[in-house]
Design a protein that fits this description.
Layout: E1 2-5, H1 10-21, E2 27-30, H2 41-46, E3 54-56, E4 62-64, H3 66-76, H4 87-104, H5 110-118, H6 124-149, H7 162-176, H8 185-194, H9 198-203
Parallel strand pairs: 1-2
Antiparallel strand pairs: 1-3, 3-4
Helix pairs in contact: 1-3, 1-7, 4-6, 4-7, 7-8
């Protein structure tokens, strides 16, 4: 497999965690979204949406969108499962995934923040306020849901699931942007526990070949 990704992209980070947890090897291709490499002609051929990650499967198929890639990996490589077999438990995991992937991440990704800054000409302070507002709302909902239905050291139980694959990059981004997450004790406890797992360490941004200090 080949993975086109950027070291600090939370969507790329999700997929790298899942690949590491499943023990799957892949060829790493760095796409520097800070300088617009995602908008080059060669990358658009891989992903018309001009984003990362892009997974080239073992049989040469191209997949985009992190949640679709995670679903493909789960179904194709069922060893070390990241979704419970129980229908309701599976839905609970996916609920957390989509709270992050559908509600929190889209309004705060790099191209949205770039549009606010470059096209709408908001100030740096306004851009930061935008980011922190949606982070606060998202983590409030996440904390509530995990306190209600989560259990164990990970989001759900004593083994990581796709929920943890999504949670860790989102927390890492929020901390990188200087957000105060001290009110979200459940979220932070899960994040700190995941960081002790070697697969999460292997997938972390500072371990990637395209890492920029």
């Amino acid at each position: 497999m080949q993975l086109y990704n950027f070291f600090n992209s939370s969507t790329s980070y999700r997929v790298r965690i899942a690949l590491a947890l499943k023990g799957l090897s892949y060829e790493h291709h760095g796409v520097n979204i800070r300088i617009g490499e995602q908008a080059t002609e060669s990358h658009i051929k891989l992903n018309p949406a001009k984003g990362v990650p892009v997974l080239i499967t073992d049989d040469g198929q191209t997949l985009t969108q992190s949640m679709a890639i995670l679903d493909y990996l789960e179904l194709t490589y069922p060893d070390s499962p990241l979704l419970p077999k129980d229908t309701l438990e599976r839905a609970r995991v996916l609920e957390i995934c989509h709270m992050i992937a559908s509600d929190m991440h889209p309004v705060n990704n790099l191209r949205i923040l770039g549009y606010l800054k470059q096209q709408l000409e908001v100030t740096d302070e306004q851009k930061t306020a935008w980011y922190q507002h949606w982070i606060q709302e998202g983590f409030e909902a996440l904390e509530s849901r995990l306190n209600e239905h989560g259990y164990g050291d990970y989001c759900f139980g004593d083994q990581p699931t796709l929920a943890d694959c999504c949670l860790v990059p989102q927390v890492a981004n929020a901390l990188r942007f200087g957000c105060d997450l001290s009110a979200f004790s459940k979220v932070l406890a899960i994040y700190e526990h995941c960081k002790k797992n070697t697969a999460f360490q292997q997938a972390s941004p500072n371990q990637q070949p395209d890492f920029i200090a």
